[in-house]
Each structure stands twice: as C-alpha cells, then as structure tokens.
Write a structure and sequence with these properties.
Elements: H1 12-15, E1 21-24, E2 32-35, E3 44-47, E4 72-78, E5 93-98, E6 110-120, E7 125-135, E8 139-150, E9 153-155, E10 158-160, E11 165-177, E12 181-192, E13 203-221, E14 224-240, E15 256-274, E16 277-296, E17 299-325, E18 328-342, H2 354-365, E19 369-382, E20 388-399, H3 403-407, E21 424-425, E22 433-445, E23 449-468, H4 479-486, E24 493-511, E25 517-530, E26 544-552, E27 556-565, E28 583-593, E29 598-605, E30 639-647
C-alpha cells in the first residue's frame, strides 16, 4: 500500500502509529514515544540495535533524535513486554534500523543505491537521505548521508514560532562474512544545528554525536549461534535561550547549558538450538558518564555543575528458553542486573547566590553512591489454532532511577522531557520501579481479514514521579523552595516513589473486501491511576482511533486516513494537568511507480485545516509566537507534501 503520511523529521511519530503508541510533542526533533501510557526511559529505544544514554538533561535528544526518517529502513516494536534478551526495559522496546548495504549472492560486485527526498509545505521543510554501497557474497561497504531543514510550522490561526530545525547525518558501514558468520563495523556522525524547543526553557544550539559499533553475528557450530556487539556513543550538547528564542532572555536570565554524555556497551549472547526451539544465554555491560554545566553567557563567573560527573555502571546477565508442548508454544526468560550509580561534587562559580551554594555543599557531603539489583522475568505462551492464535504474557519488570532523578541536586525544570513548567529536584533514596504485568489477546488472520487485540494490566510499585518537596506545601522554609520560588515555582517537586497502575486495550486490524482494496487501522485505550492516593497518572494519552482506506493498483495507488482522539478528562489533579478536547484530522495520500525502483508519493495533511491541540503536546514558551504563552502547541495545519523514493 502507498505511504500514508509525510515523513516527519522526528521518527518517533512513525513509531507512535503502532497500537498503544502515542507521542510527546517537545519539538521537531525531540519527541518522546509513549507506549501504553509509559514514556521516557521506561521505553527502551535503540538505533541499529545500539542502546545509549541521551545527552540532554531534558531529553532533547531521545533515541530517535538520531534516526532521520529519510534514512529509516524499518522500525521494530516489541509489542507489549520486551524479551529479557533485549535488556532491561519497564515498558516495550523499539529499534530504528537505518539503511544498510546487503551482501550479494555471488562473487561479483554489485551496487546498492537508495534515496529519499521530500518537501513539506506546512513548515517549508525539505529532507534528503541516501545510501550508496557495493557488495558481493563476502564483502559489503556502504555510506549514508542525510540533510533536513525546516521553518516554523503553520497552524490554523498563525505560526508556531520556535519550531524550526536543522540536522545532518553521515556515516559508513562495512561487513565481511564467511560460512560461520559476519564481522561488521559502522560509524555515524549526527550534527543537529540550532533547533527550537518551545516547551522548554532552552533551545538546541547543537548536538554533535558520534556512534561507533562493531561485532560478530553468526553460527559457529551446528545449532550454535554467537552474537557479540561492542559500541560507544559520545554526545556533546549546548542549549541556550539566546540563539533561537524569541524574544531572547535578558542578560540576568541568559543561560547556556553544556552537556556531555558517553555510553560504552558490550553484549554477548550464545544460542543453542533452532529458531523455534532454543536456549539462549547472554551478558551485557553498559557504562554511562554524564556532565551538565549551567552558565550565563554574559557572566563568566556564573556557572553550576547541575550533574557533576554522574555515572552509571550496569552489568547484566540473562537466560531465555523457547520451546513447545504439543501445539502450545512458550518463551520463558529471566535476567538480573546490578547497577552502580555515583556523582561527583559540584563546582560553582563565584557569583552564584548563597542558596545554590548551600545545596551544593549539602550534596557534596551526602553519600553519592548507590548500588541496586533488579530482576526481570517474562513468560509468553501462544497456541496456533488454524486462523486464530490465542496468546498470554506474564512478566515482572524493574527500572532503576535515572541519573537525573537520583542526582539532580539543583532545582531546575529538567524532568527528562515532561516540559510541564514545574521545578524538580532529585532524590538519593529512590527505590527501583517494579512492574507486574499481565496481557491477554489473540491474532486472527485470514485472506480477507486480520485482527490483533490485546488487553493489558500493569501494576507498578515504587513508580517514580514528582511529589511535593515536603509536607508544608507552599511554605518557603528550605533552600530548595527558596530557589524554586525565585524562579517562579513556589511549590517545587522532588522525584519520589508512589504506587500506580495502568490498564487498557489496543488493537490493529485490516479488512480486504475485494482485490486491491484494504481498510486498516489501530485503536488504543489506556488508563493510568495512582494507587496510593485518589488521582490519575500524569500525561496519559486519550483513547484514539486511526482508520485508512487504500486502493493498490499496478502503478497508481491512493487512499485516505482519519486520526481521531477522544477527550482526555482523566488528568492528574496533583500536577495541575488540564483536560484536552477531542479532535479528528483527515489526510490524503497517493503513489505512482515510475518504475519498479522509482516512485513519486504525495499527499495532503490535515485536509480540513482543523485546529487541534493534542493532549501530549508541550506548551509554548516563545513569547513572539501566535501560540499564546503556556498554551498547548497546536497540530500542523493543512499542507501538501511530495516525496521521491528509489532503490537501484
């Protein structure tokens, strides 16, 4: 079927189209995936199978920031609960695979060229991505590159100022294979230039990021497969409120925050058996080192190390078995991880006021080292019964607090992308989150119809979210509250453990009533509640429905898509979350294949020019914008898009 949407710069919006998926709109390149009501570091995101820590303290660079849509080959989502072999993950796991040259099937060298180029009118953006490679049956070499740039986008009623973006990426990859397997290596450089982030206090000035990984994958003996992967990611980041912010902040509030993050990983797994009957054992290591310094562009003596050399060292091991008993199939896995987290003593400048100095001194005197052990277990069962396959999952999943949640000693708005205007402070005593999960569903597949519904329940003990800093809410009787009040929030939050639950149902379906016509769609509903108090969880997406109808011709295809979201009135009273209204938008799409290798695609988004504000959209903090201050960012207005794709 034809592609149904203009490729967004942020590939997270593509991943959010899966059942249960939703999207935190924090900027053109900073969206976060919400899956069944959980987001941020609770969802494992990877690019080319490589996991890494984000560079920005407010998650301006979530994993898919580094996956330009025009270079994405596929996005794989572990629906429901991620297998333990993929690493620790409280919610699902998602991997974006970029273009790579494949091996040939003979000794002769053959070229491999792929490209995508697109123009989108609603933000006057363009994107170009390509891969060029050569390969034979033993060797493969390839290079990739992309360039994206866009202006502020239009919506019915004006322009959302501060939403422009610019990003470049280039890289190379190579592989050598024999009968035993493949040795491979890859390198990429991602360079994000000034990009607006309206929901945040600061905007992206740059992200300069290097990815390198290599390893071996193959069969080393009969029914024995070995996978080895080594990787490193280095991120350098600057954000400020001067370069793209309109109006710019006055000198006394001018801020430039420098952040660095390095992640080194090693993974080893051995599998004994066949694809449908095996036992796999493995181990992995992840070392993370972060540094964040807040400065004033007009005062060299003003600086604070808000995350002073914070580090996490995780070592894990797992075992996973898959097999059958009659028609019934099972997958059982368990993993254990030990995570050590440490922080340095913060340095501060001579002109920093006394309040932050007192907090820095107290943090330096505290015990800034912790080690926690987490255990994950997953049991899946399914039974093919002709056209229908019932399935069930039981799991226990855990997540250690992030470095920001634990070591954020300075009260700031850094919240890993919540972008809610609240000021947060860390908590050295956070316990790991523990999720108890049950899922039940079935897959129905016939020539004319397919349906895959899943009902789920997730009970989370020690769920980490913002809670009142102390028992005297609104009474400024501590340095934290004094600093927060001076920055506009007299009721700061600290990250704390609460009890929560999430439950719901989601599905996808396709109907093929006649040859060449398909009706398809997804539907999602999730409810998130606190169990310790009478309140709802924060930033839970509303029920939504996606429907498309498409005609597939030999060369020409076309169709339409409807996306509708219900009201969201089950909001968090504690977080002051506002309800959201329902909306529905319609788009058109078409594709014409010039040849088997070359196609033109085009479409119209928001055909009826509907004004809508998604519940999970961030709130604008650009004063010189047609979006009022602290209003939810509206969705893009009506626009046309055109794309050329090819593979030779």
């Amino acid at each position: 079927m034809p592609e149904q949407i203009a490729l967004p710069a942020d590939a997270t919006t593509i991943a959010a189209r899966v059942p249960g998926g939703a999207f935190f709109g924090n900027g053109a390149l900073s969206g976060q995936l919400s899956y069944r009501g959980l987001a941020g570091q609770r969802v494992l995101g990877r690019v080319n199978g490589q996991r890494f820590a984000t560079g920005g303290p407010n998650a301006m660079d979530p994993p898919f920031h580094y996956a330009p849509s025009v270079l994405v080959e596929s996005i794989d989502v572990a629906r429901g609960v991620a297998p333990v072999s993929q690493g620790p993950s409280l919610a699902g796991a998602v991997n974006a695979q970029l273009f790579e040259t494949d091996f040939g099937d003979s000794a002769n060298w053959s070229p491999d060229l792929r490209f995508t180029s697109q123009y989108r009118s609603v933000d006057n953006s363009y994107a170009v991505g390509s891969m060029a490679g050569v390969s034979n049956e033993h060797w493969r070499f390839g290079v990739i590159a992309s360039r994206e740039e866009g202006d502020d986008y239009d919506f019915p009623g004006g322009t959302a100022v501060g939403t422009s973006f610019e990003r470049n990426l280039y890289g190379m990859h190579a592989g050598f294979q024999t009968g035993a397997g493949e040795l491979y290596i890859e390198y990429r450089r991602s360079a994000t230039d000034p990009t607006g982030n309206p929901p945040f206090f600061l905007d992206i000035v740059f992200f300069d990021t290097d990815f390198v990984q290599g390893g071996f994958r193959g069969q080393i003996a009969d029914d024995v497969q070995l996978t080895l992967r080594l990787g490193h990611v280095s991120i350098a980041h600057l954000m400020d409120n001067q370069t793209t912010r309109k109006p710019v902040a006055p000198p006394d509030r001018a801020r430039a925050t420098f952040a660095d993050a390095d992640t080194s990983t090693a993974e080893l797994a051995v599998r004994f058996g066949q694809a449908n009957s095996y036992i796999q054992i493995g181990a992995d290591i992840e070392l993370t080192d972060k540094f964040v310094t807040i400065t004033n562009l007009f005062n060299d003596a003003f600086f604070l190390e808000s995350q002073p050399n914070v580090q996490a060292e995780r070592a894990g091991a797992f075992v996973q078995w898959r097999g059958g008993l009659g028609r019934a199939q099972f997958e059982l896995g368990a993993r254990i991880d030990s995570t050590k987290q440490t922080a340095g003593a913060p340095q501060i400048g001579a002109t920093v006021p006394m309040g932050p100095r007192m907090l820095a001194t107290a943090f330096a005197a505290a015990d800034r080292e912790t080690r926690q052990t987490t255990v994950d277990t997953v049991l899946r069962a399914w039974m093919p019964l002709g056209a229908i396959t019932p399935r069930a999952t039981l799991a226990r999943k855990e997540r250690v607090a992030s470095l920001l949640e634990r070591f954020g000693w300075l009260p700031t708005e850094a919240s890993f992308g919540l972008a809610d205007g609240n000021i947060y402070v860390g908590n050295l005593d956070l316990d790991p989150e523990t999720g108890w999960i049950a899922e039940l569903g079935f897959d129905l597949e016939t020539d004319a119809f397919s349906l895959r519904p899943t009902a789920f329940y997730r009970r989370v003990d020690d769920f980490i979210q913002g809670v009142p800093f102390d028992d005297t809410i609104g009474v400024i009787d501590s340095p934290v509250e004094m600093i927060a009040s001076m920055n506009g929030d007299p009721t700061p939050l600290r990250f704390g453990n609460v009890d929560a639950e999430l439950f719901g149902v989601d599905l996808d379906f396709a109907v093929r009533p006649v040859d060449r016509i398909e009706l398809s769609g997804t539907a999602s509903f999730v409810r998130g509640k606190r169990r310790d108090v009478n309140d709802n969880l924060y930033r839970i997406p509303p029920a939504n429905l996606r429907l498309s109808a498409a005609y597939q011709g030999d060369a020409f295809s076309f169709g339409a898509e409807l996306f509708a979201a219900a009201d969201q009135n089950d909001v968090s009273a504690f977080n002051g979350e506002q309800a959201a209204e329902s909306f529905a938008v319609v788009g058109l799409f078409a594709r014409y294949g010039l040849t088997e290798a070359l196609a033109i695609e085009t479409g119209v988004e928001n055909l009826l020019d509907e004004f809508y504000q998604p519940h999970l959209a961030g709130r604008s903090r650009f004063g010189a914008s047609d979006v009022p201050l602290f209003d939810r960012l509206p969705g893009p207005g009506r626009g046309v898009w055109a794309r050329i794709t090819g593979r030779f």
